[in-house]
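ok trying again, last paste got cut off:
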Amino acid sequence: MHLAHLNPELLGVYFGLNRGEIKGDSTTRGAVAMNRYLLVLVVLLFACTGDGDVESQTRVVQKISSQGDYMINSSSGSLGGAYVGMSQSELSSMRYPQSHGSSLPEGEEYEVVKVTLGQVEIDCILDEKGNVHRFSTYSILVRDECGAGVGARVAELKEKYPGGKILIGDEDGRFASFVNGSRVIFVLDQNSIDDSCFDDMEKKCGLDEQDVKVKQLVVSFAAAAAS
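nice, full thing came through this time. structure:
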């Protein structure tokens, strides 16, 4: 079963991440979500590994459990208490160091809040209403439920997500990413991709799947739609 086929609303209920269900500050929400995470670990495990043997599933469970707050909930789009859609006031109330700046993606200026979650930094881009539209990180510590993150090879991503897609092109700037139907975008290192792949988007790209790796994770509202 592929993660993209799971019911996001059902997962939201288990994880307690629907804003109407968990009251209190963002630290409380994060703690409750992590506790409830264990209730659906088996479901997410099957989404990543299929019907593998019991021994291999046990190893994956141990690996995922050890990641703690640095594991992304790829269905709801959350990490360590931060999530796409949260308001700026909610973001400000988080008990983590923060700094403010701006960014110019697609030629438009957006406010960016850099949040330090322990050993991990995330850049939260706010929309015109002041809500978190997406956040990103270059940290190798951050992983999704399947253990995929920065440094993963395209071949590994395709093995974990057989239904995933590679998106490469040049529209308002070059882009190269892997999407799998969740809220996570795996941004690929363009330095390992031949220029011809960007110049002719209709041409089948001879991508070296063992050489091209993930350089950044982006968690976004638009990710699932793009896949």
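cool. Residues 1-46, 50-67 have pLDDT under 50 and may be disordered. The first helix runs from residue 8 to 15.
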